[in-house]
Amino acid sequence: MISFTQAQLYAWLTAFIWPLIRILALITAAPVFGNTVVPTRVKIALAVAVTVLVSPVLGPMPQIDPGSIPGLFIIIQQIVIGAAMGLSMQIVFVAVEMAGNITGLQMGLGFATFYDPASGGSTAVIAQYLNLVATLIFLAINGHLIMISTIVDSFTAFPIGDAPLHGAGPLALAHWGGRIFVDGLLLSLPMLGALLITNIALAVLTKAAPQLNIFAVGFPITLAVGMGVLTLSLPYFMPVLDRLMGDGFQFMLKAVKMLH
After folding, report:
1. What region, left, alpha or beta, does residue 59 occupy, with left being phi > 0 and alpha being psi -120 to 50 degrees?
2. Where would you tag: which of 2, 98, 223, 243 has the fewest CB atoms within 10 A of its CB?
């Protein structure tokens, strides 16, 4: 007959619960995994499966009661670490969405929005299109596997314990959030440059032929130029986005180290 002592069960439970909280926080905040269209049961099942696979190699865990004050502190600590890693990667996708919003506004498609269940609000059509392209690239480069590998490495960079969080981590994450504007503008520059030249040409045309109805002619021209430049720039868009995602993966682990 196989029997277990209460101490053994307690040790197994604590060795499982601490990594599960960090991994579940990452899955909730990360792109693709944390999408609201993904059922909550799937997220929990994925977190449990990853935890079962990685918990045997994480080493001994602190023998602290999860219901005690130090245990609650460790729970909050794991949530902060996992959420910070997920948000680090989510910033790349927000930058892509911002590039789509800027492009759609300059093309005259600022009004072409629809409800996006992932964000819970209206999203521009171009932004949603670029977000889908970014998601496909993320899956094509095995970004979901790299993210899981990074969360496993984070247990070495910041072992589970009662060590306090360092204030440099949130500050670094705030600075990393500035990449939304930098990368969003960088990704939309080809479309912005082409549309600027188009608008200047339309302005010259309006001066040369005042009887021309610029509102009837300008919209289809800017729309056609914007779509054409967007199609031509997609092959160059993918390497840039690949590099941005690589920076995101590196910052995920960097943020954990700065929290330690």
Report:
1. left
2. 2
